[in-house]
Amino acid sequence: MIVERLRVGDRVSVQELVEATEASDMTIRRDLDFLAAQGVLKRIHGGAVSAMPSGLEPPHSLRAQAAVAAKQAIARAAVEHLHDGETIVLDSGTTALETAKLLHDRAMTVMPLSLHVAHELADAPRIRLLMPGGEARKGELSLVGPLTVASLRALRFDAAVLSPCAFSLDAGLTAFDLGDAEVKQEAMNVATRTIVLADGAKWDRAALAYVCPAVRPDLIITDDSAPEDQRILLTQRGGLVEVAS
């Protein structure tokens, strides 16, 4: 919540956070100190200001702790659309990681686009794990670059499960990193169908690198915090939206 408020207003006070969360003054100050150590904000007297440019991706460790219940619900809905025996390319991102956790007992072939996801599936007894080449981005551990793209182009998948950084009706699917956007594009090109995982916090936002139009995926799975008017408009434009509960 602190990170989201800083994206909107660039400044937060300890007092307003105490009132909004009903947490103690000490807890809020600890959280602000933690975020300051991550480089997300700068502490000022009585609060904090944003230290993160709008084009900078929030750290993976912070995103992994945000909207966990929504991401888990989206992941549960996503695996209902994946079937044993299929070949799946599974994106980087925290919602994709939650999806990987639910595939342990499934029998399918998976190519992960993240070392986080690969590690999660490494000991899954019935998963055939195909590793792409490429460069692991620092912190994110997502795989990018010409070797990753070449690995994708050599194969065909039943489904690409993607987790974009941002999503809007006008800007479409976007990513903070140019290499990440290219990998997502190629994953869609080599898959029969594309399933996009986007919790409500990603809606009506845009990042630097364009991936595809909003109506390009075959299915978008979100949660009920996604703006209802945006969901309706996307459906009217031909998109298929599923709201996970």
TrEMBL record:
<dbReference type="InterPro" id="IPR036388">
    <property type="entry name" value="WH-like_DNA-bd_sf"/>
</dbReference>
<protein>
    <submittedName>
        <fullName>DeoR family transcriptional regulator</fullName>
    </submittedName>
</protein>
<keyword id="KW-0804">Transcription</keyword>
<dbReference type="InterPro" id="IPR036390">
    <property type="entry name" value="WH_DNA-bd_sf"/>
</dbReference>
<dbReference type="GO" id="GO:0003700">
    <property type="term" value="F:DNA-binding transcription factor activity"/>
</dbReference>
<dbReference type="Pfam" id="PF08220">
    <property type="entry name" value="HTH_DeoR"/>
</dbReference>
<dbReference type="InterPro" id="IPR001034">
    <property type="entry name" value="DeoR_HTH"/>
</dbReference>
<feature type="domain" description="HTH deoR-type">
    <location>
        <begin position="1"/>
        <end position="50"/>
    </location>
</feature>
<dbReference type="Pfam" id="PF00455">
    <property type="entry name" value="DeoRC"/>
</dbReference>
<dbReference type="InterPro" id="IPR014036">
    <property type="entry name" value="DeoR-like_C"/>
</dbReference>
<dbReference type="InterPro" id="IPR037171">
    <property type="entry name" value="NagB/RpiA_transferase-like"/>
</dbReference>
<dbReference type="InterPro" id="IPR050313">
    <property type="entry name" value="Carb_Metab_HTH_regulators"/>
</dbReference>
<keyword id="KW-0805">Transcription regulation</keyword>
